[in-house]
Amino acid sequence: MTQAPEQEAPPVPEGHVRLTIDGETVDAPKGEILIRTCERLGIVVPRFCDHPLLEPAGACRQCLVEVEMGGRPMPKPQASCTMTVADGMVVKTQRTSAVADKAQQGVMELLLINHPLDCPICDKGGECPLQNQAMSSGRAESRFHEHKRTFAKPLPISDEVLLDRERCVLCQRCTRFSEQIAGDPFIELLERGAHQQIGTEETAWGDGEDFQSYFSGNTIQICPVGALTSASYRFRSRPFDLVSTPGTCEHCASGCSTRRDWRRGGVTRVLAGEDPNVNEEWLCDKGRFAFRYPTSAQRVLQPMVREDGVLTPVSWVEALERAATLLATARDGAGAPRTGEDGEELAPKRGVGVLPGGRATVEDAYAYAKFARVALRTNDVDHRARAHSAEELDFLAGYAAGVAPSHVSYAHLEAARTVLCVAFDPEEESPIVFLRLRKAARHGTRVVHVGSWTTPAVVKTGGHLLGAVPGEEAAVLEDLPADLATALGEPGAVVLVGERAAEVPGLLGAVSALAGRTGARVAWVPRRAGERGGVDAGTLPTLLPGARRVDDAAAREEVAEVWGVPTLPDTPGRDLTAMLTAARDGELAGLVVGGVELADLPDPELARAALAEADVVISLEQVLTEVGERADVVLPVAPAVNRSGTYRNWEGRDRPFGTTIDPGQGGSGRVGGTAAVTLPDCRVLDSLAVEMDVDLFTQTPQSAAAELAELGTVAVTPSTPATRPSATSGGSDGPSLTPDVSDAPLARPVRLATWRQLIDGGALLAEEHDLPGTARPPRLRVAVGTAERLGLVPGEPARLGDALELVVEIADLPEDVVWAPAHVPVAGGVVTLAGLGLHHGDPVELSTGASQ
Amino acid sequence: MSQPEEYRPDPLTPVLTRRWLLPESWTLRHYTELGGYSALDTALATDPADLVALVKDSGLRGRGGAGFPTGMKWSFIPQPKPGEEPTEATKDAPQFKPKYLVVNADEGEPGTCKDTPLMMADPHSLIEGCIITSWAIRANFCAIYIRGEIVHAIRRLHYAVKEAYEAGHLGQDIHGTGFDLDIVVHAGAGAYICGEETALLDSLEGRRGQPRLKPPFPATAGLYAAPTVVNNVETIATVPSIVAGGKEWFRTMGRERSPGPKIYSLSGHVERPGQYEAPLGTTLRELLEMAGGMKDGVPLKFWTPGGSSTPLFTAEHLDVPLDFEGAAEAGSMLGTTALMIFNETVSVPWAVMKWTEFYEHESCGKCTPCREGNYWLAGILQRMNAGQGTEEDIDTLLDVCSNVLGRSFCALGDGAVSPITSGIKYFRQEFLDLCQAQPAATERVLAGAH
């Protein structure tokens, strides 16, 4: 064809083939799909079923092109989405081939004969591949005089997803996504011919399973027509009336890129952003649908101080002054003198602890860390609003603090031959990590889960479970099957550790020992978006910003120099439980609390007692919580959508985001109809510090980030933790989590296994009414033998402890173990097992509901 | 099923049909008495590779419609080289996977009725063919995917398989050779598309019956992603006679590139409809003579050479030799040699509409051209036959056909437009007659509006 003369053409690179497309010579990697090669040349071939992350289907036939192989034209036009490139191939797309052009026009006409002309009321109108390609490859006048096929519409295939079958072009992207990517094949093709349709068991038979998936929203986004629509977005707006702003998902530590579409001060929908390094093009339903909390009635929009026991709205100046005065007094132990029960004089309460919570941005966490050290002169800071331990502090210092994505990243998971998940159910705790593990498993990676039962995540990542009795996971790691231990010694093997490993004494040590023994790389995958940033920014009692240890004098000096202060407090601080205990016992005078839900804490009662006993409670919050209801001063802070910042995801990858809706920008910034301006935590803390005569220089997230960057991170070699100084923790051991069966006055000792489910009534689900319908129902799971021994009937309720009644399901747990979700949504809130005093590994009482 | 009363060895060549008229011809006893299962011993004493070569040399071509050389299909099955043992690197390679034989007994093409009577009258010839073929391709499992509606044939085949097991022709250590083979008779659920070999495999695996993307072809990744031969019933049932008679004998029948006997199914306006086994290359004129001519002497108008998916022929084509080449040269295809014969009383647009309604009903829905195209074509033809057509509709029909032919995922769409394009080609005036008094549509309609 038009190839350059032989002597001028550079050699074909290794592993490539050379072909001609529309007269242009191109080298393509072997195995590349033709339509991708066209894309690289800038040639747009229209398509519907093709999606780069799904396996080829060749169903829609829109992408037909003419192909010549070995000098012989192929008799039929070929689907460029299924054909792989070959050496010497000559391809003519619609740009140069009348045959290809007519084929595409013909398919487009056929796609439109049964498609309704309802673009003016269709959600997809304006961003619809069918609409666009009908313009580029379709005809203006119809030859179709027959009756269009009609269906009843819409069909709810889940609480979140509605189906208009008339609009469907049967490209099967949704069914292929569900089968290949999510592994939730509850949505399928039904019937045949022109009656073929997408459906579920429920739409086919009138009852049965509907489309249950944590990833169902992706089908809406990849639908190339308006057949799948979102219940929460349907008929809400036209895409061209929305402003699209890139964002980062605030819900978990996966760090997904998002696109927030908004208008008139409110987000109307969230879509997955494209980031091949992180979430590819996917987003879980929580990230996609749970975006209404910023406009909930519970939002705190004005500063408040407590006057005569009642929270009263005041100006920022007044609130900051009051808070500063209270904090300075508490810090210095200058409060009222105390007398003991016998009238003796007690030492005054002294000091303020900081509890920033696990949802802060890196910049906010840095501000909290600096505020504690500089304004409050203490290392009493701990963002871990969950089960935690001193052992975990050591582990985080060795394996998380300062570790870059080059250690373990999504790409590493995909490339690994073996991945071991410890105390981590990826689908429930980090859904996009789950998708990557599933992708890896489909390509041969062996994903092994140390857990108590074969959860859906285990099934969908290859089904390898290493059964463990709750509380005894460490012993399982110490005695791994030989083949697995060997596999973990191979290059690229990864151990993923969940945050709840801290609940099991010795488990993190066992992980560390395993890593030392095998050389496998360890990565810590927390649940909340701010956990990892907190570790790196220094909101832990033993760590300063940049992975520096509090007990390292040189590190303290480095930080003090940048901060412009003479010294930093040198004793490691108290952890969350130790702070709460000290406050309850009258030793700690005050607490500064960020976004902390008491129900999330390992001992909510202790927290309530501590807040009641503390002299000073300052709360920075987005929505009024139990902490705010007790606080002396409540300072409103901005939700992610109204501010900029950076989340650092589990990989250690920075996920910066700009302001989506700027509350300062006149009418567009109205939040829920009010013109409130809320500020990022770092700005609030900066102003508060100024009132305490200290400068944090964190007025904006940018300035906080700049200073953190100036501090830098000390060199970290996570695979050799033994070279790091051994930890001397100032924290408590937390509540005793060691099961002590001999002391338990139980007739039937059953051990509890528990963790949280993805959608379980958290605060960020506020105002989102459809999403809870797709939550997995809370169930008690036991083995058959245990159920029989205790007289539990599957499908019937049983009682866990004194208060919680849930329906029983049989699963492959070890005998005498019961699994329950850690949070159970109930009318008006959540019941947490921790709130009932029940913890992972504990002996619990389990009985039939009826007999009690 | 009927045969001419007077037995004539030529031009009829009863090979597959020679036992059909015996009482209780389907029993193992009758099959064995007439030399059945003796070819099996010959085959089991032959090296499998030699068997493949024998069938290749015999020139046997697939009887399911496409006419692909059977021996070549078998030779595509990857086999380990002599002495080759699986290594860590090659243990998952196709040559070390199990091999499967799948028999396509999903006979559903309109007009086609050769496999069903064969399985009714002589199921053991199919079973013996299965065993020999399995030996040749080194398969130990064979599935016969049979059309779900023909319950009588399913029962008879089940009974025959049971008889064969009891006689030691199936199961472990067949005839003391150490060869094991199991046959499973699997009934489909009534979808025409499951006669397409990859849709058949998906259906057999328990999935939705829709054609698969090729490559990989069944020869490397077929049933359960293992190397698989998919052959038609008549093809497999022919194999024992080739083993017994030899390739030279087989080539004495038929023509050079299409040798052997073939069951021609005559239906419609003929005096004695039924199955006539004659050498490939026999003409309709000869077949009509055997069948007693056109019914009541009403002249022939049009006919299909191989089922509704093959373009129509007319009385001009009475002397076209009905083999793979002859039919193709005359502008049609041999297909399944299902000759549907229509006399002058039949309206071509009406017959074409009925066929198109069949394809509309049976399109699997996977690809746009076939799913939407047949819906539209059927709609236009119904409207035309109701007297509401316009001349413009004829152009639309042909243009839509050109957008379906060669654009659909599998051959169903190609077959579906054959009756329309050939019907208009030979009988355009009949379509025009339907449109008389219908003014051409002049209003402009926005695309998608209707």
TrEMBL record, chain A:
It holds the Pfam family Fer4_NDSU1. Residues 651-670, 716-744 are annotated as: Disordered. The keyword Iron-sulfur applies. Binds 1 [2Fe-2S] cluster per subunit. Transmembrane segments: none annotated. The keyword Translocase applies. It is an enzyme of class 7 (translocase). Residues 15-97 form the 2Fe-2S ferredoxin-type domain. It catalyses: a quinone + NADH + 5 H(+)(in) = a quinol + NAD(+) + 4 H(+)(out). Its cofactor is [2Fe-2S] cluster; [4Fe-4S] cluster. Its EC number is 7.1.1.-. Residues 242-298 form the 4Fe-4S Mo/W bis-MGD-type domain. Residues 716-729 have a biased composition (Low complexity). It comes from the Bacteria. Belongs to the complex I 75 kDa subunit family. NDH-1 shuttles electrons from NADH, via FMN and iron-sulfur (Fe-S) centers, to quinones in the respiratory chain. Couples the redox reaction to proton translocation (for every two electrons transferred, four hydrogen ions are translocated across the cytoplasmic membrane), and thus conserves the redox energy in a proton gradient. This is NADH-quinone oxidoreductase. It comes from Actinomycetospora aurantiaca.
TrEMBL record, chain B:
Its EC number is 7.1.1.-. Pfam families: Complex1_51K, NADH_4Fe-4S, SLBB. This is NADH-quinone oxidoreductase subunit F. Residues 349-394 form the NADH-ubiquinone oxidoreductase 51kDa subunit iron-sulphur binding domain. The lineage of its organism: Bacteria, Bacillati, Actinomycetota, Actinomycetes, Pseudonocardiales. Keywords: 4Fe-4S, Flavoprotein, FMN, Iron, Iron-sulfur, Metal-binding, NAD, Oxidoreductase, Quinone, Translocase. The gene is nuoF. Its cofactor is [4Fe-4S] cluster; FMN. NDH-1 shuttles electrons from NADH, via FMN and iron-sulfur (Fe-S) centers, to quinones in the respiratory chain. It comes from Actinomycetospora aurantiaca.
